[in-house]
């Protein structure tokens, strides 16, 4: 297996995704906290391994891999069991579609960099930043709900956990943080509830990490 080190932050949804992949595949890893609110992601040392200054970054046998989707695809190839994709090419494409709705459309709207820019350069209040996120996230949630009604079983695509679940569950946690009413999306809620019964999802939860502040611990 070789050594695995994950630079991440407890509340980062992209870090959450990768923790899920690692736990589901039964991979041991060293947890390296990067405190985003303290700006540790901007240090010269960290920028050398992740030039964009985001989290997560995976280190495997001394090689650095930034960005969650790239990390998860890498883990799927290097540690293929249990697989996070079915063999069917069409279903693989639809799973990646769900992941892209979250990764490319929803996540950037609530990203710390985006919200800090809105505050510092456009004068947004906390309430306005939350409204900004809810506006865009609602469109994403409606898309996911419509899409997954067709494919969902116990989980997003049938009765096996797939890559889609590793994106959906963290994004729903983020939506809850921004005070969104998830009852409008019963398929997504059902998927999340079923996933969170699994040990890997419990271990990866933001409120159970070594850098989770005491007031958030469950």
Succession of helices and strands: EHEHEEHHHHHHH
Structural class by SSE content: alpha+beta
> Under the CATH scheme, which architecture of the largest domain would be assigned?
Up-down Bundle
Helix content: 40-55%
Largest sheet: 4 strands, mixed
Number of domains: 2
Report the uncertain regions.
none
Describe this structure in words.
The protein contains 9 helices and 4 strands; from the N terminus they run E-H-E-H-E-E-H-H-H-H-H-H-H. With 218 residues, it is of the alpha+beta class. The protein has 2 domains: 79 residues, Glutaredoxin; 113 residues, Glutathione S-transferase Yfyf (Class Pi), Chain A, domain 2 (Up-down Bundle), CATH 1.20.1050.10. It has a 4-stranded mixed β-sheet, covered by helices on one side. A hairpin with a 2-residue loop joins strand 3 and strand 4.
Q: What's the quick description here?
A:
The chain is α+β, with helices and mostly antiparallel strands. It has helices spanning 13-24, 44-49, 68-78, 89-110, 112-122, 126-151, 163-177, 186-195, 199-204; strands at residues 4-8, 30-33, 57-60, 63-66.
